[in-house]
Amino acid sequence: MASAWQLNRRVTVEGVEIAYEVFGEGKPVVLVHGFPGNSYIWRNIVPTLAQTHRVHVYDLPGQGASEQREGMDVSDPMQSRVLRSLLEHWKLERPAGIFHDIGNTYGMSAYYFEGCRFDRMALISAAMMLPCVTAATKHAQKYIEAYRTMPYALYELIATARIRSTTHRPLSEEAFEAYMKPWRGEKGQAMWYNRVAQIADEHIARLEAALGPTDVPVRIIWGTEDTWIPVDQAARLQRYIRNADVHLVEGGGHFLMEDAPEEVTRLLVDFLQR
Description:
Layout: E1 9-13, E2 16-23, E3 27-32, H1 46-49, E4 53-58, H2 76-89, E5 96-100, H3 103-113, E6 120-124, H4 135-142, H5 144-149, H6 152-164, H7 173-180, H8 185-197, H9 201-210, E7 218-223, H10 232-240, E8 245-249, H11 256-259, H12 261-273
Helix pairs in contact: 2-3
């Protein structure tokens, strides 16, 4: 599965075509990736989860194999509505939710603001409290037109550096290309900065204000070498969600499923079967 990762199913929700796939049988689990990743990040996790669960994965609007068009709405509220509509399409009332990076904002906003219910929630490298974007992203937001119109060769260098910085250990060339491919070309550049432009502090602040103990189990998982969102944010998040347990993965970067797929899988299986 890992070497031939592909999402073969399509559905249009909230006016955007979403690429998705379902693996295995059993209790439902929904995996939500972040930026600048795509569902490929779950390739080493899904096979084990699918042995005991029905695993739903999808590419976010504007990313991976899902629909991409210039100027499309990829804001946090839109992403949360897409998740809600996908749960309705899949007829899932209380799946387990596993969220990564800003996928945590989408999953938790769906929980707090869109009426979505989850059986339990795992929060990995969570981008859901201020500040939750890197200095590089902040700089791009401040000078967004310069980034949108810079020569493609320069953009490619920036995107390459950003993707390679997501892990503590070097990415394999296969993994690098899987993350970089959707962002190549002038269309990729337009989509990258369309996404960056729509990351808004006001949406994150609204979610952070709503955070508190939940009515379901929560597990926080973080890499100790995360350079995108420092590991001390894990303890801060637990102060909000006091019923959550926290697990730190030594030597893990922001794309934790790349640096430590076996440990992340172990923590998720333990959490799902608890």
